[in-house]
C-alpha cells in the first residue's frame, strides 16, 4: 500500500514548569486542554494535550513538562518552528494580544499571501501564527482572553531544519507521500494531500547551523496522520521494505503510534486518528480529570502524589463548575 498521509497529527515538545506551560497554552494562546495524562514511559511527569474544541488530529500540541529540565538548543536535526493557523484578518489582533501579555513578537512578515507572526513560549520554543486566505473550517475553542473569531484553528505547518535537503525530501515524498510545493531560497515546502493549513512542512536548509539538542524549549517529535490501525500496519510494512528503522506499533491509548527518524535527524511518528480523546471521558469534560491507561491505574495514588497540582481555567477545573 502506498503511504499517503493526509497531514499533521500532533507536535510534541519538552516544557519546563507544568503550571507555566498550562497558563501559556490555555490562557495566552486560548487552546483547550483536551487530555490530562502522564508520560507513559515516565508516569511521574504530565503529558498535556492542547487542541481545538474536540481535540481533533491536526489541532494538537502536546508537552512533557519537566519542572527542572535543562534548556535545549535549536538547530539542525529537529523541528525548529511550530506554526498555528489563525483567521486571515486576525494577525494584528494577535500581535496586540501577545504584546499585552508581555510576549515579545517579531514583525508581521508577508510571503505567498500568508501573514506570519513569530514569538516564543516561556521555555523558548519557537512558535508562529499564520494568517492565510485558504479558510480553515476547524472548530476553535472560545475563551475569555481569546474569542473564537480570532482563535487558533489548529496546526498550520512545522519547519524541519537540516544540513542537506535531498534525503529529508525523499523521506517526505517517497516515505510519507507528500508532494513538493514551493521553494523560497533555502526553504522548501512540501504538502500532504491537498495541502493547506495542517498539511504543510517546510524544510529549512542551514548547513552551518549547530546540531539541535532536545531538552526544554524544543520539539521532541512530529506526528503525521494515519486513518486507522490497518492502514498504519500496512504503512509500517512499507517503511520497513524501504529500509527504514521503524518501531513496533505502540498503544498510546488515544491513538496507535510508530516512530522513526527522517534522514535529517528529526524524530517522526505516524499516529492513527482513532480512537480519539473521547474514549475515556465525555467530550464536554475533556482534560478535566487525570486519565491513566489501564496498566497504570493500580499506581494512581502514587502517581497523583508525584505530580504537581495544576491551577486550570474554569472550563478545565471541575472544582469551579
From TrEMBL:
PROSITE patterns per record: VOC (PS51819)
* The entry's keywords: Dioxygenase, Oxidoreductase
The question of whether Chloroplast is a record keyword is answered with no
Q: Where is the VOC domain?
A: 7-132, 154-273
InterPro entries hit by this protein: Extradiol_RC_dioxygenase (IPR052537), Glyas_Bleomycin-R_OHBP_Dase (IPR029068), Glyas_Fos-R_dOase_dom (IPR004360), VOC_core (IPR037523)
Q: Which Pfam families match?
A: Glyoxalase
Q: What is this protein called?
A: Ring-cleaving dioxygenase
